[in-house]
Amino acid sequence: MNTLTQTTTADTPLFLNCLSRRERLLWLRELDAATPCGSLLVLSIVELNQPAAGLYSLTPSELEAYFASGYEILPLSQTPCHEGVEYRFLLKKHNSLDPSLVAQALSQLRAH
Fold first, then answer.
1. pTM for the complete prediction?
2. Which candidate, 38, 30, 34, places its Cα nearest to that of 95?
3. What are the distances in angstroms from CA 64 to CA 2, 3, 19, 52?
4. Best CATH choice for the domain 7-111 from the list 3.40.720.10, 3.30.1330.40, 3.40.50.150, 3.10.180.10
5. What is the pLDDT of residues 38-92, one digit of tens each?
6. Element (H or E) spanning 86, and its range?
7. For residue range 94-110, what is the model confidence (pLDDT) as tens digits?
């Protein structure tokens, strides 16, 4: 039996760079909750060259650490843009994210 795979494209809004890590993770959790298992997701993030005061740039490593517990992640492109560097990823959701594994991956990332 053939199943249809849903593909979604999401551009990470630049306002995410103004959010705290906790608020950003909440946005990513909502994205995960809205994405059915088996779906493909094309996600674009911008790593800022020079974040202004109060801004925190979302990095590819942070994104990969966040999604590693439930998604297969494939980098698609890395393109310079006015704000910094835009990264595009293809993600395939295998299962919902495990919050404890996400916290563990992010704490290991911060330790390096």
1. 0.73
2. 38
3. 29, 27, 18, 24
4. 3.40.50.150
5. 998 888 888 877 766 666 667 888 888 888 889 999 999 999 988 888 888 999 9
6. strand 84-93
7. 998 888 887 887 787 77
